[in-house]
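Below is a concrete protein record.
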Amino acid sequence: MLRTEGETLSLGRHVGSLLKPGDWIALTGELGSGKTTFVSGVLASLHPGARVRSPTYVLVEVYGAKPTVVHADLFRLASSREYAGLGLEDLALGDAVVLVEWADRAAGDLPLDRLDLELRYLDGDGREIRIRPRGDRWESLAREGAFDRDRWHDALYPGN
């Protein structure tokens, strides 16, 4: 469970530290569940000082280099055919990592090797995040404990 926005940012920073060029992250969850906050944490890890600009209206934002961060928001897509027109696969070539919000709107079009994160509100305070590694690299990281909450939380919040 993620109790605060700060914990969501911290998880994003942790996952950002694991990313390599070619990696994809698929984010799902209801409006306001923390997807963009998570992306902000990833971006802070990879490009300190950069600020996330919500791509809801432009659909795709690109940040930095080595790695380039491609951030897509599929909320406004009317059909999966529109996804093909975004050219995310082309943007992902080279040194890019790709973060896709509202990934469920194009789930069949995303690469099979990816990290799926589902954020949802819990009754009361906090959010739940479900992490589903897909593909050898992500499954290997999961087996090594990379997504063990105690492990990443303690590294970011020593003594808590």
About this structure: The chain has one domain: 5-156. The first helix runs from residue 5 to 18.
